[in-house]
Amino acid sequence: MDLIVLGILLCIAFSSAQGVTPRCCVETTKRFPLDLLKKVNRYEVQTSSGACTIDALVLHVGDMRYCATPKMEQFLQKLMKRMARLKASAV
Known about the structure:
By secondary structure, the chain is α+β, with helices and mostly antiparallel strands. The chain has one domain: CATH 2.40.50.40. It contains three helices and three strands, in the order ααβββα. It has helices at 2-20, 34-38, 73-90, and strands spanning 42-46, 56-61, 64-68. Strand 2 and strand 3 (64-68) form a beta hairpin. The longest helix is centred in the N-terminal third of the chain and has 19 residues, at 2-20. The chain is extended and about 65 Å long. This is C-C motif chemokine 27b precursor. Belongs to the intercrine beta (chemokine CC) family. It is found in: Secreted. GO terms for molecular function: chemokine activity. Keywords: Cytokine, Disulfide bond, Secreted, Signal.
């Protein structure tokens, strides 16, 4: 009985530790095909002041993540607004 309880506690501890591990970009690029950028659903900013070692924009396209240079944020914001306007006018 004690071994079962110990096993359960170890499983809980291991799964909790895995949930805390961040998925960090380790390098970035500033060149992406425009077709890919048009498909970006959302993006998030990764900072080096947190658990990750570099600043980056994490672009989400479906289930995929791409690491872009932070300098692309302004361009990406404009592109996403433009795409939203085009979708709204098409309806």
